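ok trying again, last paste got cut off:
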Amino acid sequence: MKAAALIASLSCTLVSPTIHAQEAQQATQAQQVQQVQSFVNMYRMVDYSLGANESCDLFTIGHYRALGLLRSMFRSKLKSVATDEQLDQLRAFDSAKDAWRGCITQAENAEAWSIIDKSELLADALIAAPVKVSVEPKDCRVAWGGPALSRNEWAYAATAAVSKYDKTPDKAEFETLQGQLAAMIDEECGKRQSSELLQAGYEQLRHIEDNNLFLQKNKSGKKQVFTSVGSDIVSDPVSDDFGIWRSRRGGFSRYPTGTGIIAYRVRDRGDVDVAFSVLSRPGTYSARGKMYLSRAGRMTARMDGNFDAIELRLSNGDSYPLNKLKGQGSGNFTASSEFALPADAQRKLASLDDEATMTIAYRIDGKDWVSFLEIGKNAATKEIGMGDIRSSLEWSNAPMAAKEGQ
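nice, full thing came through this time. structure:
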């Protein structure tokens, strides 16, 4: 079914058989149809933009999270008048992902870029919405593990978004959207004292503070932060691992140390680290660290503890020991060590298909070999798939888009 026909079909579900009965009813039905059309257009727009962002680095973390939240919200509203199958037919994600491989120029693709610009405006409005809420922000937490922030802290996140439209023809539209989204946050806060929509501004604020800390990396003494979010991350900013970064793939997490591979987009375009996987053995404080992936797929393990050895164990029965580069100290808090996968093992891994998986085993303090586990109670053995490695590196390596005139 074509998009226009599908929109008409969705709209008709709101119209009763007595459509011609009264003029008032007709006006109401027309408003309902218009609202459905608006949600459909918004849903397609943000889905297209997220698809484009898969292949071209278009959005920083705040915008990326905002668009993901808005897509979920629009889809949820449309589910009252459409099936999942109908909504899937509206999606533009895959076609946009294909069209934007390698990025496309504004000069030759003005219409496609206009969709990105409109999505960015919508995302900016959501990032800036918390400063317009009617409730006291401190009474409402960021949903899924986030803090409750003051209005001044939210203003720090909103500053760039607000100033961007201050003297442009889009100012009125931005402010209207900002107010509408603030009302939605108010509604969520009133129901449960937390709001998922606050995640976009929080991610933006965390990103600003993190990159600001990187600029102070060589500064002696106490680092300057501007909000409680900065205070929260000052001891362990993401930029310590990746330098200036732009975005992180996946869903919201106050502390992005979950399962699988966590991929970042970073400013440095050299063969630097761009992703990591947490290595841990719950309950064993000495068995902690991260396995890093560089742009070219180099694997380096940096451990909190002076490990004796680490090796990859593949599902095909092969095993690849990592070379120990350095190790110092002992005990849980002062020791460290670093390992790297040899180049020949890296080439062998690259030849495997996406279905191949691996576990990671270690020895420490002369004890027997043990496998790292996933995070959580009764955790299973940690397993990493080649498909996840490849998709993570593909996402991290997407080229950065450049607007004309910038």
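cool. Residues 23-55 form the longest helix (33 residues). Confidence is low (pLDDT under 50) at residues 10-21.
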